[in-house]
Design a protein that fits this description.
The complex is a heterotetramer of chains A (100), B (505), C (486) and D (665). Chain A is mostly helical and 100 residues long. Chain A contains three helices and no strands. Chain A has one domain: Helix Hairpins (Orthogonal Bundle). In chain A, 80% of the residues lie in helices and 0% in strands. In chain A, helix 1 runs antiparallel to helix 2. Chain D contains 26 helices and four strands. Classes of the chains: A mainly alpha (100), B mainly alpha (505), C mainly alpha (486), D mainly alpha (665). Chains in contact: A-C, A-D, B-C, B-D, C-D.
Chain lengths: 100, 505, 486, 665
């Protein structure tokens, strides 16, 4: 029971770090990393709950989400690269031609 | 089962589509005239088939549409609808003739006019609340275009104001209709949008909408009322009208004043009067109606007196005249109600002449500002003749249809609403005042040379006005053809209301 | 259980993969045919779905075929079909067409999976499949900074929300011990409500809210819709948005059960804020695509009224409005695409082609487009007879009824705000209509490309058709709503 | 058989109106012959009917109209005498107009409108119900509007026409209110079962009204009758609604003649006479035994008689003088109805109607003479006339006869207990009777004020009318024009009228008994006379003041014994007051009409409408605010993706808080 709580605590911490990163960071790469953090926080939850609930679906879920996260990251980097080609920057503060 | 009505509604619609596709002005206006003429023909046939002594719905037809919601395409006419159908089919062809010389995008112009005809006919004949609402909304669109394409300098403001203002009103009305529908459904457990069934179940409603503030019945009543009086329009929800009229082209103004405003009055008789006795506080509601009516009469009159623009003056006179309709309806006496219905009919004819006159003057003299005109009678004798006739009719001269209506309303409302009738009488002098004052300054007196060379109205313009004038006089001398059917319908309409009086009397 | 029921999904998946291979085999020139192929494929699967009778569940009850999934799948396929047909001209002679159509098809499949997801896992997978395909589609014009920026924003906010959603799902799984939605529902029916549940629900709401573009999860929408290729915008606004709704319908029912009535308040506030914000901001937009974006935010507000009063009628209304909105908004974006084509054919390197000034005299320059846009706008404004009107009609009806029968003032206030909003929306629609029909044209009459015309006419027929004969769709929607058993 | 064609009396002129209006241009002298023929026809029919029904018959025809109203014809003694007078005088005026209007290009319009005017008046006279009466009454008003504004290109004419219509309209509204009140009351007593309309009769028929009047609540009846009288005040130019009548001189003189003699103004008196039983039925709360309504009628009439006469003294426009004289004479008729009504019952009707008809003759004559003078001299200002006697004898003599009649010169032999009948002009017979009734009233009720009014007015009358005659026809010419006698078509009518102005008076006794019998069926037979033998002085006084007036004018304006110009030029306030007509136009038109109604009421309404309802509420509060919000909310969309992310996460937080507030765990 206690260790479940520990896991949840950890995941919560990681999740918070991730969201903090998203809000504060300026570089696209760092943002992507923060998002990964948040996803993995969720994965920790899933695995922890899975063992707590004593059924495997949580872990299956985690596997899926890890795979998906990977794909997501790939797409993210692809977009960033393409953007870098045309704008020579991935600093998100400058990427605001679309607004209002 | 007859199919006159659906035919009468369908033909202008088809005509409109054809008109939109036509290339030349010739084709467009001929199509418009023919198709509206056919509707007129049909409505005359209906009139001949119409049994005046029968109080209920006649010539009715019903086609299934959306069973799951209990919506049917059901049409029919009675003493409330028939005269207005007649009015529509009379006014539209005349408007087409009057606008015979339209040169700007004629195919669209005539097409939109025909669409208006479809819309108003639908409103005046639908017996299904859903269908009624659809036509009620459809009417807005052609008018929006008539104003915003052929309109004056501030047309955008006027058009959008007209659209949004009346649209909000109809949405509020829609909410009330929802409540009625739900109520009927709870009782019968069968979905049914039939107007009369919904109204029939209204008395069975109960409970508070907002506890100790307003009951459901009253809320529904006020919701419906709001939808209608904005259309009429009644003070203080009238300000869209002057703007719309000032900017709209003449044909637009004629249709707006002669037909669209009547939709509000129609709703009053079709929906409000039957519900009134059963609302939780009929006294308050009657008083409310009466106040709105008299306020519109007097306020409209004084505002008309203040106007410099002839057309704007006429617009306010419409508000004042529609006030009589509200007053007559509020009195809940058979003859006052039928008088109010007759007021709708006659105002439709009269206001047509007035707006057409404004149009001719605008077109010929290039201005409608009363102060800039003057003495145009010298150069426009024909116009002066019909215009004077129209103005006299509008100020309620005996022998013209307006007088019959106002007399019936005043003389029969007094028993229930003495105070208000006295106030209304007070307005009559000023009504005469602004009409004559405008005539004196704009038409009579010495000719204002600054106007340069001005010519009389074209023959087709004068002709269509003359026809209206003749009708005004005819119905002023012999109102029975329409008045009888109105009275026949009005009598059972107010039977439940016997003995009701306002809070202030 | 016969997998034949899944034939449409399977067909599209196979087709999607096949297209890539075809793309490798054929020459640059003949890549244009790929568009037609995928169109035919979509049409075929649409036919299958319409012809599909019977219900069933698959993969350990992870996917179900029921009326709710049916109607939403129809929506998704129709939208993709429209988008594809329009794209045939929009992406003509683009050397990456094969990937483009593959992505569209995959996105469609993803949405369809979400529509019939009966398990959080399936839901998540479908969600991500659709999202990721659309991230790429949004940035498909990879030389165009706007398009890329749109994609980036979409991606960042999107993956953030999927993170939130996943976290929420993990919590739900944690407390209920299962990922199967009916079982979760069963658990919540009995269990005591805990803070975790609420947290979970909020995360889920945030996750779906992102797709639905509810305030405050809407921020990405205007930028993305504006920046992306117009046909893609139509897919996003009309299609993937609805994915959020179907997910919400499936899952948030239990949110309702879980935390009882409180969630209603939340949705009430979300709905009101969303519709008002959308309409008010739309008024002052110069870019029509952006205006449409805000208007679809407003529409999302209306639709989410369905969650406020969780009655069968209200959900049916929500579904109807979603269906209508798919047609109207998809069509509207396509019309904008035509305008863009028109402007570019006037002047090769014209910037922001969707500026309202380009719509001047459209009635003369591109009559069919203008007329269709006119229809879509009136429908969006809820003027009868149109799909938009039917949707709003049923939706507002359900709310009013709830307000009256439970004498709840706040519901009445909400529905009044809603009607005021829909009246307000007329203002900015009418503004464009005025440009199209009142103002004089600034160029020659153009020849409207056939694919666009077909797409537009399909949308118009759908919009008006539903307005004129709503009987079947209303029944469909009622059945769909009945599935949720509220 | 004539009575079967009674409807034609009205219809003929109406038909003539339509034909003349549309075909006039092509016909001789603008189609003048059509209306003349038509009115002649009406006259003949009326005459025929008169001989059919005399002495005690009447014609009643009636058809249902709309709702519960009817249209119908009622020809009783009261109506038939009016019919004869109207058709006859109007006929003469039309003939005269052929000459008078010969130079006017718009002749067709003129004759069409006068024809309609006559028709409307005949409609008033023939009506058998108050509604039809009112409708015709309104049409009379319309025609007066059209005819006064006949020369519409003259701003003054257009203004006068408007004023005439509006001022009478005030009266009409009161009248209408009276009808409303009557209708309601009758319905009420019907509802309460105390009264029911005789089968075949209709709700607003006079016969029904009179029967109902006996049952209606007396105070209500007073209101009703007073409202009716309000209408009469408007139409008959009684104080305070007299202002339009002098201005109505803007129309052609023939029109003035029609308005003042045959049609229009007499309608008011006729209304009171027609509904006399109702007036008589009102309770007497102020002076015992005097019905309140009649008291009001008497006082208003008496005061108007005097009030108008004072203004007649100083007017320089020949037609204005006559106009005020009309107002004053109408005052006499009202006075007669009031006072005699109080003491002699229905005889009042006879007395008043006799003066009305006599007045119609000599006033028509006066106007036509004036017209002939204006025709010749080309001005209305009597200061520019003078010395016309030699040049236009017929006009001068006939006008002098009319003046005598107006001044009521005669020898009351019978009044002096001599076994001979009185000798004198028509005016003498009719006016003396009125003054004597006023005295009788004073004698019986101890209230001599009306009598005083009457006598003083008589003096002034004689002064101003002879002033007019002397200034116009005697002395040396004060303008260098070369006037000539008018053509025969104009002078013949003058002569005919002159005959009537002189000798019509001798029909007095027969007339009284005949006309007064009109209401026997309601009020029972009226008892004879004033009930008292007035002392000799009373009998003589009217004649004495008449002669006195003549002498004064003779002295001042013929012998020039004292120079009027001094008094005038010295600008004394009294003169100013009179010349400015007691500032009635200023008060009426400027202050009430323009200042109060337009500038204050209407403009403030305009302000409320445009600035508050529209400007403030709709445009500013609703419109502007929305736009402002839009712009503001728009700026939230910064375009920086972190902010978006922050907002999203913020949203999550907010939802949490909301749910806590929402009462969750």
């Amino acid at each position: 029971m206690a260790d479940l709580f520990m896991f949840l605590l950890i995941s919560a911490v990681i999740f918070t770090i991730g969201s903090y990163g998203i809000i504060t960071q300026r570089s696209g790469i760092k943002i992507l990393m923060s998002i990964e953090l948040m996803l993995n926080a969720a994965n920790i939850n899933l695995v922890a709950f899975s063992s707590f609930n004593g059924n495997a679906s949580g872990q299956v879920f985690a596997l899926f989400s890890i795979a998906i996260a990977a794909a997501e990251a790939a797409i993210g980097f692809a977009i960033l690269v393409a953007l870098f080609r045309v704008r020579d920057t991935i600093n998100l503060d400058n990427i605001n031609i679309l607004r209002w | 089962m007859t199919a006159y009505i659906s035919l009468m509604i369908a033909i202008p619609l088809i005509g409109a589509l054809i008109a939109f596709l036509t290339k030349t002005r010739e084709q467009a206006r001929v199509v418009a005239l023919v198709s509206s003429g056919i509707s007129l023909l049909i409505s005359l046939i209906m009139l001949s088939r119409f049994d005046t002594s029968f109080t209920g719905i006649q010539l009715d037809e019903i086609h299934s549409w959306i069973p799951s919601l209990g919506i049917t395409l059901s049409f029919g006419v009675d003493g409330i609808g028939m005269p207005l159908v007649l009015l529509s089919t009379i006014v539209i062809p005349l408007t087409v003739i009057f606008a015979w010389g339209e040169t700007k995008e004629p195919n669209k112009f005539y097409g939109l006019i025909l669409l208006e005809l479809t819309g108003v006919l639908g409103v005046f004949t639908s017996l299904d609340f859903f269908v009624f609402y659809i036509f009620w909304e459809i009417v807005l669109i052609p008018m929006y275009f008539l104003i915003s394409i052929w309109g004056g300098p501030r047309k955008d403001y006027a058009a959008i104001k007209f659209f949004i203002y009346t649209h909000i009103a109809s949405l509020v009305m829609l909410l009330a209709i929802f409540a009625l529908y739900f109520n009927a459904w709870q009782i019968t457990r069968t979905p049914d949008f039939n107007m009369f069934h919904l109204l029939k179940n209204y008395p069975l409603l109960e409970g508070w909408l907002i506890p100790n503030v307003i009951t459901i019945k009253d809320a529904i009543f006020i919701g419906l009322l709001f939808g209608f009086i904005v259309k009429m329009p009644a003070v203080p929800f009238h300000t869209w009208l002057p703007d719309a009229h000032v900017e709209a082209p003449t044909a637009g103004s004629v249709i707006l004043a002669a037909l669209l405003l009547k939709m509000g009055g129609y709703g009053l008789f079709r929906v409000i009067v039957p519900l009134l006795p059963f609302s939780d506080s009929p006294g308050k509601m009657i008083t409310l109606l009466a106040i709105i009516g008299v306020l519109s009469i007097l306020y409209g009159t004084f505002l008309a007196l203040a106007q410099r623009d002839l057309k704007k003056m006429v617009a306010y006179s419409s508000i004042s005249h529609m006030g009589y309709v509200t007053l007559g309806a509020a009195a809940l006496v058979p003859l006052s109600v039928s008088g109010a219905m007759f007021q709708q009919f006659s105002h439709g004819l009269i206001t047509g002449v007035l707006f057409m006159s404004c149009g001719v003057i605008q077109h010929s003299a290039g201005t409608r500002i009363i102060g800039d005109l003057g003495g145009i009678a010298k150069h426009m004798p024909k116009l002066t003749f019909v215009m004077l006739a129209g103005f006299l009719a509008s100020l309620g001269l005996p022998g013209m249809s307006g007088f019959i209506a106002e007399l019936l309303i005043l003389i029969n409302s007094y028993a229930n609403l003495p105070t208000f009738v006295i106030l209304a009488l007070f307005g009559i002098v000023f009504t005469a005042g602004y009409h004559l004052w405008a005539m004196q300054r704009a038409v009579f007196g010495t000719f204002n040379e600054k106007l340069g060379h001005i010519h009389d109205g074209a023959d087709y313009e004068i002709a269509s006005m003359a026809v209206l004038v003749l009708l005004i006089i005819f119905f002023g001398l012999y109102p029975n053809p329409v008045l009888n059917m109105m009275t026949a319908t009005a009598t059972p309409l107010v039977r439940d209301a016997a003995g009701l009086v306002g809070v202030i009397v | 259980m016969s997998y034949i029921l899944l034939a449409p999904e399977i067909l599209l998946t196979v087709l999607a993969l096949a297209l890539i291979l075809i793309g490798l085999l054929v020459t640059e020139k003949s890549k244009n045919m790929i568009g037609y192929i995928s169109a035919i494929g979509l049409a075929a699967s649409l036919v299958m779905i319409l012809g599909r009778t019977g219900e069933g569940s698959f993969f350990n009850n992870a996917l179900v075929i029921d009326p709710l999934s049916q109607i939403f799948k129809i929506i998704f396929i129709v939208v993709s079909l429209l988008a594809v047909i329009a794209s045939i001209h929009y992406f003509k002679d683009n050397r990456n067409q094969d990937e483009y159509y593959t992505l569209i098809l995959l996105a469609t499949v993803g949405m369809m999976v979400v529509a019939s997801a009966n398990d959080l896992l399936a839901l998540f997978v479908g969600f991500e499949l659709a999202s990721m395909s659309t991230y790429v589609l949004a940035g498909f014009e990879k030389k165009n900074p706007a398009s890329l920026e749109a994609a980036l924003k979409y991606f960042i906010i999107g993956s953030l929300s999927s993170a939130l959603m996943l976290f929420g799902m993990s919590l739900v799984y944690g407390v209920s011990g299962t990922t199967n939605i009916p079982e979760i529902l069963a658990y919540f029916k009995t269990a005591q409500v805990s803070g975790i549940d609420i947290l979970a629900m909020i995360f889920l709401v945030a996750g779906f809210g992102f797709k639905m573009a509810l305030v405050p999860f809407h921020m990405w929408a205007p930028d993305t819709y504006e920046g992306s290729p117009t046909v893609v915008s139509s897919l996003l606004a009309a299609g993937s948005k609805k994915m959020g709704f179907v997910a919400a319908f499936r899952v948030l029912v239990l949110a309702l059960v879980a935390v009882r009535a409180d969630i209603q308040i939340v949705f009430a506030i979300l709905a009101v804020v969303t519709m008002t914000y959308g309409n008010v901001v739309a008024i002052s937009q110069k870019s029509i695509k952006r205006m449409l974006a805000y208007s679809s935010i407003a529409q999302a507000g209306y639709i989410s009224l369905a969650f406020v009063v969780m009655t069968q009628m209200s959900i049916a209304g929500g579904v109807l409005l979603a269906l209508g909105h798919a047609l109207m908004k998809g069509g509207a974006f396509i019309a904008v695409a035509v305008v863009g084509y028109m402007v570019l054919s006037d002047n090769k390197n014209a910037k922001n082609t969707d500026d309202i000034s380009n719509f001047a005299g459209l009635g003369k320059r591109a009559p069919i487009t203008a007329l269709s846009l006119f229809v879509f706008f009136l429908a969006l404004a809820g003027i009868p007879p149109s799909a938009g009107f039917i949707g709003k009609f049923v939706l507002f009806y359900s709310v009013t009824v709830q307000a009256v029968s439970t004498a709840s003032t706040w519901l009445l206030v909400i529905v009044i705000i809603a009607i005021l909003n829909s009246a307000l929306s007329i203002y900015y629609y009418a503004r464009v209509i005025r440009y199209m029909y009142v103002l004089p044209p600034e160029g020659e009459k153009i020849h409207e490309p056939l694919p666009y015309v077909i797409a537009l006419l399909l949308a118009v027929i759908g919009t008006i058709g539903i307005g004129l004969y709503p009987e079947p769709v209303i029944n469909m929607a009622m059945n769909a709503a009945s599935v949720l058993g509220v | 058989m004539f009575s079967d064609y009674a409807a034609l009396i009205v219809l003929l002129p109406v038909i003539a109106f339509v034909l003349t209006l549309f075909l006039g241009k092509k016909l001789y002298s603008g189609g003048a012959l059509l209306p003349i023929a038509a009115i002649a026809g009406s006259f003949i029919i009326s005459l025929g009917i008169f001989f059919e029904i005399y002495p005690d018959g009447m014609v009643r025809q009636s058809l249902p109209w709309f709702a519960n109203f009817n249209i119908g014809i009622l020809i009783d003694p009261l109506a038939i005498v009016m019919l004869l007078m109207v058709t006859f005088v109007s006929l003469l005026i039309h003939i005269y107009a052929v000459g008078y209007m010969s130079h006017d290009p718009a002749k067709p319009r003129y004759f069409a409108e006068t024809s309609l005017f006559t028709a409307a008046m005949l409609g008033v006279v023939l009506s058998d119900n108050i509604l039809q009466f009112f409708i015709s009454w309104e049409l009379v008003g319309l025609c007066s509007f059209l005819l006064i504004g006949f020369w519409y290109h003259k701003p003054s004419a257009a203004a006068a026409a408007k004023k005439a219509f509006l001022v009478t309209r005030v009266g009409d509204v009161l009248f209408l209110a009276g009808i409303v009140l009557l209708y309601v009351n009758i319905n009420e007593i019907i509802a309460s079962g105390r009264f029911s309309v005789v089968p075949g009769n209709f709700l607003l028929q006079f016969s029904t009204m009179f029967e109902a009047a006996k049952l209606i609540d007396p105070t209500q009846l007073t209101y009703i009758t007073l409202l009716f009288f309000g209408g009469a005040v408007g139409k008959s130019g009684q104080f305070p609604l007299h202002g339009w009548l002098p201005d109505a001189m803007e129309g052609p003189t023939t029109v003035s003649a029609l308005i003042h003699a045959a049609t229009m103004v007499t309608a008011g008196v006729y209304l009171v006479a027609r509904t006399f039983p109702m007036f008589a039925a009102t309770p007497g709360t102020f002076v015992p035994g005097v019905p309140d309504s009649l008291l009001v009628v008497a006082y208003i009439g008496g005061f108007t008689a005097l009030f108008a006469a004072t203004m007649g003294l100083v007017m320089n426009d020949i037609k204005r003088v006559l106009a005020y004289s009309t107002v004053s004479q109408l005052g006499y008729m009202m006075l007669a109805l009031g006072t005699a009504g109080a003491v002699a019952g229905a005889n009042a009707v006879g007395i008043s109607m006799f003066h009305l008809i006599g007045h119609a003759f000599f006033k028509a004559l006066l106007f036509l003479c004036a017209g002939s003078v204006i025709h010749a001299v080309g001005t209305n200002d009597i200061r520019e006339m003078g010395g016309l006697f030699g040049k236009m004898k017929i006009t001068a003599i006939t006008m002098f006869i009319a003046a005598l009649s107006l001044a009521g010169i005669g020898i009351p032999l019978a009044g002096l207990r001599l076994p001979i009948f009185n000798i004198g002009t028509t005016g003498f017979f009719s006016k003396d009777a009125i003054i004597e009734e006023a005295y009788a009233y004073g004698f019986e009720r101890g209230d001599y004020i009306p009598y005083a009014f009457a006598v003083i007015a008589a003096l002034l009358t004689s002064i101003y009318i002879f002033r007019l005659w002397f200034m116009a026809f005697t002395g040396k010419p004060r303008s260098e024009r070369h006037p000539h006698e008018s053509p025969g078509v104009m002078t013949r009518p003058l002569m005919i009228l002159a005959v009537f102005a002189l000798f019509f008076g001798f029909t007095q006794p027969a007339f009284y008994s005949y006309v007064s019998a009109s209401f026997d069926f309601v009020m029972g037979p009226a008892y004879e006379g004033g009930g008292i033998e007035p002392p000799v002085i009373v009998v003589l006084l009217p004649v004495i003041v008449g002669v006195l007036g003549f002498l004064i004018s003779y002295a001042i304006y013929y012998k020039r014994m004292l120079d009027m110009s001094k008094i005038i030029s010295s600008g004394n306030p009294l003169y100013k007051l009179l010349l400015n007509r007691y500032y009635e136009p200023t008060i009426g038109a400027n202050i009430i009409g323009v200042k109060l109604t337009h500038d204050v009421a209407a403009q403030s309404g305009e302000f409320v409408d445009r600035k508050i309802i529209d400007g403030l509420v709709i445009d500013t509060i609703i419109g502007k605010t929305t736009f402002f919000l839009g712009e503001a909310a728009r700026k939230l969309q910064t375009g920086v993706v972190q902010n978006y992310a922050s907002v999203t996460l913020l949203g999550v937080g907010l939802l949490l808080i909301l749910l806590k507030l929402g009462g969750g765990v």
